[in-house]
Amino acid sequence: MLNPTFDYETKLIASGFSRICGIDEVGRGPLAGPVVACAVIIDLSLMKNSEIAGKLAKIRDSKKLSQKQREKWHKILTECTKVKWAIGIVPEKIIDEINILEATKAAMEQALKTLQTATDFILIDGNFTLEKIDLNQKAVPQGDEKIISVAAASIIAKVTRDRMMEEYHIKYPEYDFASHKGYGTKKHIEAIKKFVPCSIHRRSFEPLKSLKFVKS
User: Residue 157 and residue 143: Cα distance in Å, rounded?
Assistant: First the structure.
C-alpha cells in the first residue's frame, strides 16, 4: 500500500521551487452532479516541525478513508493557517457540453485561479496536465496515494462534493443521492428509470444517453 509523503515536494525544493501545489478532483464517474477539484498548498515549513509532519504523514487518499475520517481531516486541513486551498466546480450541464476530461481540467483551472497564494509548481493527480495554465507542472498517476498535498486536495474535494450531493438529496429524495453521491449503483439506475432523470443528471453518460425518455 502506498502512503503519501513529502518526497516529491522535497525534490522540487532541491530544484529551486518553493510554492508547490497539489491538485486532485472527485466526481468524474458519477451519473449526476458536478465534478469538483481542489488545489492545496501546504507551507513547507511544516516539514521542519517533526510533530506536525508526523501527523500529516498519516494522511491518506480520500478513497481509503471512511466518511468520519474524511470529515476529521477536512476540518484539520481547512482550519490550518499553513494550508492554503481553493475549490473549482464544474456542473453537470457543462460536463455534457465539453466532456468529463475537459470539465475536470476546467475545475482544476478554476481552483488554481481561485487560490489566493501564488504557486510555482503544480502536482496533478492523473495522466494529464493543464494546457491553459502557464506554470511548471507534472502529472502523477495515483498522485493522491503518493503526495501529501494531493491527498489533502482529494479529501477537501471529496467532502465538498459529498456535502453538495447531500443537499441535492433533500431536493430530489427519490434518487437517494445521500447514499451513492450520484454514482451508478443499481439502486440509482433503477430510480432513474422509474422517475426519469432530474436536472442534475448527466445526459451524456450511459445509460442515460441511451434511454428513450432523455431529451437532448
Answer: 14
- Contact between 83 and 42 under an 8 Å Cβ cutoff? The reply is yes
From 188, 195, 197, 198, select the one nearest 29 (Cα to Cα): 188
Tell me the per-residue pLDDT of 10-44, one tens digit each, with 9 for 90 and over: 899 999 998 999 999 999 999 999 999 999 999 87
Query: Per DSSP, what are the bridge partners of residue 215?
Result: none
Which structural domain, as residue segments, surrounds residue 77?
7-163
- Count of domains in the chain? 1
| Residue 167: exposure state from Cβ atoms within 10 A (0-12, 13-18, ≥19) | exposed
The reply to whether 172 falls in a domain is no
Q: What is the pLDDT of residues 93-150, one digit of tens each?
A: 999 999 999 999 999 999 999 998 889 999 999 999 999 999 999 999 999 999 999 9
CA 2 to CA 41: how far, in whole Å?
21
Is residue 181 assigned to a domain? no
Which cell numbers in the block locate residue 84?
Answer: 492554503
Please indicate, yes or no, if residue 92 is contained in any of the structural domains: yes
